[in-house]
Amino acid sequence: MLNGKIAVITGGARGIGAAAAAKLAAQGADIAVIYAGSSALAAQVCSQCSSLHGVKARAYPCNVADFDAVRQTVTQIRSDFGTVHILVNNAGITRDGLVAAMSEQTFDEVLDVNLKGAFNMIRHCAGLMIRNRFGRIINITSVAALTGNPGQANYAASKAGLIGLTKTVARELAPRGITCNAVAPGFIATDMTKELSGQAAQLAAGIPLGHMGTAEDVAQAVAFMADAPYITGEVLRVDGGIAM
Length: 244
Ligand code: NAP
Prior knowledge:
Elements: E1 6-10, H1 15-26, E2 30-35, H2 39-53, E3 57-61, H3 67-81, E4 86-89, H4 104-132, E5 135-140, H5 144-147, H6 153-173, E6 178-185, H7 200-205, H8 215-226, E7 235-238
Parallel strand pairs: 1-2, 1-4, 2-3, 4-5, 5-6, 6-7
Helix pairs in contact: 1-2, 1-8, 3-4, 4-6
Bound molecules: NADP nicotinamide-adenine-dinucleotide phosphate.
Residues 10-11, 13-17, 34-38, 63-65, 90-93, 113, 140, 142, 185, 187-188, 190-193 line the site of NADP nicotinamide-adenine-dinucleotide phosphate (NAP).
């Protein structure tokens, strides 16, 4: 159980982030949802966490790619909640295209949100966790980081970078009682993959378990890592067996 713990979830307004917020709240954690544009959905996630589970929940607009904005947001969360115990770096974007034609801007945008965004959050939350001598950092990577994926050079690079970040942070912060792990989803039914829904049968054929996953499947792995005292630097696939 996570009673008394404060969890920050980036991109917590929808998809995997919203499911992770709901799952951590169900385990008793107070919830700070960071969102980019989905203010109504973020408010809805918070009100459901509070009404269903009796936890404190607040939403914060913040572009995780902006170092100073993240610093200000974490300062505000500290003032509202006191500290941070659990950080879920879930915010992510795709800007797919073949590498031979990919613009510099398209590459940078994805790296800035997916990789630098996670660094920004860890950079500004680590001090609070060190003071607590407790922390759980969970980075949402992707099986694309493990296998590569045509059309996703920027995305796979950002997610592979997250794995290196995860293992380094795990080693640096282990002596302070802080774990850092990655969760690597496969094909999960969310807004990010909705344009693939027409190819569901074809996709399913490549998945050993035979179907796409749900946001709740990933949230279960996030909650597991949030409560795991002796696992650090690990990458947990939630992919129906795609990348085994
Ligand atoms: P999604 O439904 O598209 O949600 C993405 C979330 O990221 C949204 O909540 C969005 O916030 C937030 N976000 C995007 N840019 C942001 C920024 N600059 N600052 C703050 N928040 C930002 O995607 P999802 O499928 O739930 O994906 C969640 C994570 O899982 C991502 O990191 C993704 O790469 C990873 N993943 C997904 C799959 C999959 O199959 N779906 C597979 C592997 C990995 P707003 O709603 O406020 O815009």
